[in-house]
Amino acid sequence: MKLIEAIIAWTPIRWAELKPETAGQVVVLAAPDAAGEARRYMMRAGASSSALAALSDEARIARLFIDFQTLVVRDGIDPQVAHRAFLAIDEYRFRIAPDTEGAAFEDPPEED
């Protein structure tokens, strides 16, 4: 799914007392979140931000990787847990190193 259609929800490790059932976890959900699954987590990004739609494609991609860094560095989410969740987002899969598990090509290279 495209970032503009994805809700990224997570609970920082440091808030384990507030939300022990989701502390250290991240999930990527399709917007709209009719079931309210994102409310189980303390933080949200992606389609839950009205500002995202106003950004250019390049700015959205930058925002995606800034969000990834925030989850991992500031909020203590395991990098591999965040990586596996972010694989649901097209812009992430298409822009990570091609030899990374889960990477994809937006336009697959032609075979020789």
List the total number of helices.
Answer: 3
Task: Classify the beta-strand content into a percent band.
Answer: 5-15%
How are helices and strands ordered from N to C?
Answer: EEEHHH
Shape estimate: globular
Helicity range: 25-40%
Written description of the protein model:
This protein is α+β, with helices and mostly antiparallel strands and 112 residues long. It has one domain. It is 29% helix and 12% strand. The chain has three helices and three strands, in the order βββααα. The protein has helices at 57-74, 79-86, 90-95; strands at residues 6-10, 26-30, 43-46. It has a three-stranded antiparallel β-sheet with strand order 2-1-3, with helices on one face. The protein starts with 5 loop residues before the first strand and ends in a 17-residue tail after the last helix. 27% of the residues are buried. The mean pLDDT is 93.
